[in-house]
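Let us work through a complete example step by step.
Step 1: write down the sequence.
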Amino acid sequence: MPDFDRLVKAYDIRGTVPDEMNAGVARDVGALFVRLTGTRRLAVARDMRDSSPALAAALAEGAADAGADVLDAGLGSTDYAYYVSGALGIPAAMITASHNPAAYNGIKLCRAGAAPVGEDTGLAQIRAWLQAGDIPGPAAAPGTVTSQDMRADYVRHLRSLVPLEGIRPLKVVADAGNGMAGHMVPGVLAGLPVELVPLYFELDGTFPNHEANPLEPKNLLDCQAKVRETGADIGLAFDGDADRCFFIDERGEPVPPSAIVGLVAARELARYPGSVIVHNVITSAAATEIIREHGGTPVRSRVGHSYMKALMAEHDAAFGGEHSGHYYFRDFWRADTGMLTALHVLAALGSQDRPLSELTGEYTRYAASGEINSHVDDVPAKLDEVEAAYARPGVTADRLDGLTVNLGDGRWFNLRPSNTEPLLRLNVEAPTRDAMTAIRDEVLALVR
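Step 2: predict the structure and record it as tokens.
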């Protein structure tokens, strides 16, 4: 029997195939998802991994046996599954392991309207049912499984949210990493004044070129090189299920995700003046400043899509952004979509004459360390020790997500525990690189 404590995580269900994630588990999750939601209709979509067709079919079978009619939406990105859920007002399951290596697969779930299903909103209950072997028997009236490709509707919706017809011609490198962006990007950009330079658009769940995880700098190298080689205006690097997008400027340099938060927040505040914008605790202080400068109200969140989406719902926020390349839109059922973010950045770039480095430079004001991991034996004790070391006048600290210490004058750091390992993740920001480096080294000396 799989270790369901390992398999059912905080935000999704994910493990190695077939020992942890297999057709039997997928079938049971399909039946339990129907029990959890009480739905009589749900959608299933899948990514390009070799195991995904069988897992999608098994989940659909389990849901149909439990009495729900299943719409098989076919191959698509995770934000495509969110679109289907939002547009039809039904729960959805996405078969994907996102950026994980080829040996993995998993399931992302959402309720009707793309509302997240996380640890506190259903996954803990599904885990308990799986552990107890409490699986529903066949319904008296089983449901049906029908297929419908809704990609054209998805594209129309995205394009309706961002005016792009008047932008200047742009050369765009897009690195799909052999993931789902290769299936989605051509349709999304069709008909625009864009010269598309595709990189690794062939769907291949073995990821023969590089892992589809743009959060790792090594996985951006090919996109960076292609931008420089072709003289492109911008590079787009997607993760495996294409719900995240990272951006490369015309010099071949990565754009900090916090700068994208600031840029898109300013655009959404122009459309929805005075709105709330949600950001996580690791997002640059520059984003907070920019949100206020454009008349918005910034609201801090814990890291993670379920927390971000809950706060967006609570405050009716227009937009939300995270350091990890997840961007959320009220116009997209508060779901994260790398594709819609890419359209916003293309619109911003193409509606003026400056290169991307200058455009995004307006939204980059501080030096950041990036995330640095340290193994520790006792995470809570170490957090207490670091907090005590900085207990001094003029310094504030909070425990919204791990430990955030504000040293004043634009200097702060966050230490956040990993959900799955004895790790502390450090992020530091300061007005200058020297100041950032000094704080980073001081904190790491305490941690290690």
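Step 3: interpret the result. The longest strand covers residues 104-111.
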